[in-house]
Give the backbone structure.
Amino acid sequence: MKLFDVYPLFDVNIVKGKGCKVWDDKGQEYLDLYGGHAVISIGHAHPHYISKVNEQLGKLGFYSNSVVNKLQVELAERLGRISGYDDYQLFLINSGAEANENALKLASFTNGRTRVLSAAKAFHGRTSLAVEVTNNPKIIAPINANGHVTYLPLNDLPAWEKELAKGDVCAVILECIQGVGGIQLATEEFAQGLAAACKKHGTILICDEIQCGYGRSGKFFAHQWLGIRPDIITVAKGIANGFPMGGVLISPNFKPVYGQLGTTFGGNHLACAAALAVLDVFEEEHLVENARVVGDYLINEIKQLNSDRIKDVRGRGLMIGIDLDVPHQEVRKPLIYEQHCFTGCAGTNILRLLPPLCLTKAEADDFITRLKKCL
C-alpha cells in the first residue's frame, strides 16, 4: 500500500525537535517559524510536557466518556480561568474541524435554523459542515455543497447586517484573524457591530479560534482584542502541543441534553494530560505575554527591512503575514533549503509565520537575518 498522495511535500524528513528548532534525518538544524500549522504552542519536546504525558500514559491512556474523567473537569476549570470564560461549558473533541462541526450543530439545535454567514477567504476545516463554511470551492465536494452558507466580505458590516436582518441566519462563524485567508484582521468596529446584530436577530455568534486563539495573538483569544464575547468559541491546534485535540467553549445560555453531542476519543485521558501540561507551561513561562512582546518586536523588525519585495506586514502576536511582490515560493523555498528555516504560506504571495509561543527575540533576530538573504 502507498500513501494517498494529496500533500505536496518539501523533501525534508524532520525527526527531532526542541523549542523552536527541528532537525532532519541528516542532522541539519532548522529554525521553526511555523510550528506545524500553529500547533506547537509551548515548543517542541518541552520537558514538562514529556513528563506529564509519559506519567499519564503509564497510568491510563484511554477510557470511554461513559465514566467520570477528573482530568476533563480539571482542564475545564483551568481553561475557564486562564481564558476568562469560567462561566462557560467545555465539550472536548479531536480536531478543529470537529470543533466547528459541533459548534454549528449546537447552534442549529438551539434556534432551528440552517443558514450560516461566513467570511470571504474563511477556512474552518475539511469535514462536512466545516468545509461548507470554508470559502474555497476547490475543497468543497458536491455532497458538501448544500446551500447553507452565504459568504460576505470581512469588515463590511452593512453587508452582514443586511443578511442578519432577514431573520433566518442560524450562525455567524468568524476568524478574528484569518489564517489561510492571509492574516486578515477583523476590526473592532466590525466585530462589535456584528455581535450586536447577532444578538438582535437571534443568531449564534461562533468565533473560530483554532489558529488565532490559545495565546497566539498576545491575548488568550484573538476576539478579546475586539471587545466581544461570542456565544461559542472553538479551539484546537495549540491546545495540546501536537496531541490531537479540540474543544468547544459554550455559553451558559446553552443547556446540554443527553446524547445531543458525542465523541469516542474526545477528551481522553492522554489528551487531557497533554492539554493540562500546556496550561502549566503557559502560566509558568508567561507565553501569552511572550507572544505579544516578541510578536510586536518581530513585526516591527520585518517592517524595518524596507525591502522592495515586501508590500505589507500585518498580524498580532505570533501570527504574522508578509505580503510579497513575488510568489511566496520564491522566498519560502530558499528559506527552507538554503537558510534552513520553516515558514508557512497563504494565497499566492503571502508568507505566514506561526512559530511556537516561546520564540525569543534572539530567535526573531535570527529569522530576520535568514529572511534578508532570501529577499
